[in-house]
Design brief:
Order of helices and strands: EEEEEEHHEEHEEEE
Structural class: alpha+beta
Distance between the termini: 30 Å
Largest sheet: 3 strands, antiparallel
Shape: globular
Number of helices: 3
Length: about 200
């Protein structure tokens, strides 16, 4: 059992209002206060060996390619249709979001989405209340730690886990994450197939 939940058991969960933190009142950018689910960045990944390393793909693109990710599909379909009523959907605008990276081979073209994970650059923006660092030695700051829903725990989220970001980093199999201390990092926990990382939509 993980987090007290067992396979082949039935559990009931109470729907509660989603709390949103306003990051930018001018653009309307908001960020979910809670880890609401546990999803992989990509649930279909293939590998190919090259002379120097193993590369990971989803279709014809690297597996950390946000546009083709199963997380993007889930956020803009399953989550969007369950979380919002018709009146709420009518006021959620489409956003053109950047998908660039420190690593040029994993920098991708912008996408147009209604719901999305934050990028590495948004998650290190001090104006949004985040740390402005990346891969530094983390300090424990309880105010930066994120609570998770019971439902997320039942789906496999580790209570000491991380939050998925949409930015590809370092290897084709990884994206950046926000770790349990509130810092953006990689820490080898951002593999796209992991199901123990949490989802906080924006």
């Amino acid at each position: 059992a993980s987090n007290g939940y067992y396979i082949n058991e039935v559990y009931w969960f109470e729907y509660e209002p989603i709390e949103w933190r306003i990051l930018d009142p001018d653009t309307g950018l908001v960020f979910c206060e809670t880890i609401i689910d546990s999803q992989p960045f990509n649930n279909v990944v293939t590998s190919a060996n090259t002379s120097s390393m193993t590369e990971y793909y989803t279709g014809d693109n690297y597996s950390n390619f946000y546009e083709d990710s199963s997380l993007r599909e889930w956020l803009n379909n399953d989550f969007y249709n369950v979380a919002f009523n018709e009146n709420e959907k009518a006021i959620i605008e489409e956003s053109t979001i950047e998908n660039t990276s420190h690593y040029s081979q994993y920098s991708y073209e912008p996408t147009v989405d209604k719901v999305f994970p934050l990028s590495i650059y948004e998650a290190t923006n001090v104006n949004y209340g985040f740390y402005d660092d990346y891969n530094s030695s983390p300090d424990v700051d309880s105010s930066k730690q994120t609570n998770s829903s019971d439902y997320a725990k039942s789906q496999g989220y580790y209570t000491s886990g991380n939050v998925i970001l949409r930015t590809g980093i370092y290897r084709a199999s990884e994206t950046a994450i926000i770790d349990k201390f509130g810092h953006v990092t990689r820490l080898n926990d951002g593999e796209v197939w992991n199901t123990y990382n949490g989802v906080r939509p924006a």
